[in-house]
Amino acid sequence: MAFETIKVDVADGIQTITMHRPEKLNAFTGQMMHEMIEAFDMSDRNDDVRAVIVTGSGRAFCAGADLSAGAKTFELAERKDRKQPKATADGKPDYSDEAIRDGGGRLTLRIFESLKPVIAAINGPAVGIGATMTTAMDIRLASSAARMGFVFSRRGIVMEAASSWFLPRIVGPAQALEWCYTGRVFDAQEALAGRLVSKVLAPEDLLAEARKLAREIVDNTAPVSVALMRQMVWRMLGADHPMEAHKIDSRGIFERGRSADVAEGVVSFLEKRPAKFPNKVSTDMPPYFPWWEERPYK
């Protein structure tokens, strides 16, 4: 697929997705949403990709939604460039209609499903969807030049991109609500203090640190194990009892324990050499995966 609003580069086991509308501070559009979703589809299909980095071109990460439609930006019923939702028999909007879905949420839900770990390299302003999209990523690194803001209350809308689920799980409800109630933009050090990001780096060091972290994954870990653990952690955030984690842990230990990866992991450790894990995400996920589609758990 030819991309127009993003750049995608794959090298040495790392796929880098760069939002690329620098003249618009990488403002988010429907096209960018579709292209980023396709980029995550690509990374899941490609066994050579072991980790994904997301960053922005120029001086911004993503300055939020493209507001070029002016006052009608968020008024779907008035937008001629958007499919209109159906109405119910009584004339009210059909909230189950696909057309009513939030574009940012479509992206974060796709990131949530990723089989590869996702690192945000926040190189500059990350506001609105620019901030909320990172909440579905696993690790967030920020440049000292970064500024973040959940500015929805200042635009008269509400938090989006499923961030009402993601954000409080990362920073706690009190911090999430303070940032969202005020809608203020804050610096990278405040993001670090609030545990939204794990490191603040000099601008020139940001991508190098993100790649260093990705290399730790690429060079030393079993891809199937990483894919499973990514889903284990995210899915267990909604579990109502640790028994649900125990069920999935037990399946994982049982299935992985008899895999070629584990044999290689143990032998390579005993032989004091780097492991060469043979199992692939595309073909060797265990038979209980995806377990969350079972209703109910067995």
Which shape, going by the Cα principal axes?
globular
Mean pLDDT: 92
Tally of helical segments: 10
- CATH level 4 superfamily of the largest domain: 2-enoyl-CoA Hydratase, Chain A, domain 1
Extended strand count: 9
User: How much helix, percentage-wise, in residues?
Assistant: 25-40%
Strand order of the largest sheet: 1-2-3-4-6-9
- Major β-sheet annotation: 6 strands, mixed
CATH domain class of the largest domain: Alpha Beta
Q: Quote the distance from N terminus to C terminus.
A: 40 Å
Structural class: alpha/beta
CATH architecture of the largest domain: Alpha-Beta Complex
**Which stretches of 5+ consecutive residues score pLDDT under 50?**
none
Beta-strand percentage range? 5-15%
**What's the Cα radius of gyration?**
20 Å
Explain how this protein is built.
- Helix 4 (163-171) crosses helix 5 and helix 8 runs antiparallel to helix 9 (242-257).
- Helices cover 37% and strands 13% of the residues.
- The chain has a six-stranded mixed sheet with strand order 1-2-3-4-6-9, with helices on both faces. Strands 5-7-8 form a three-stranded mixed sheet.
- The model has no long low-confidence stretch (mean pLDDT 92).
- 35% of the residues are buried.
- By secondary structure, it is α/β, with parallel strands linked by helices.
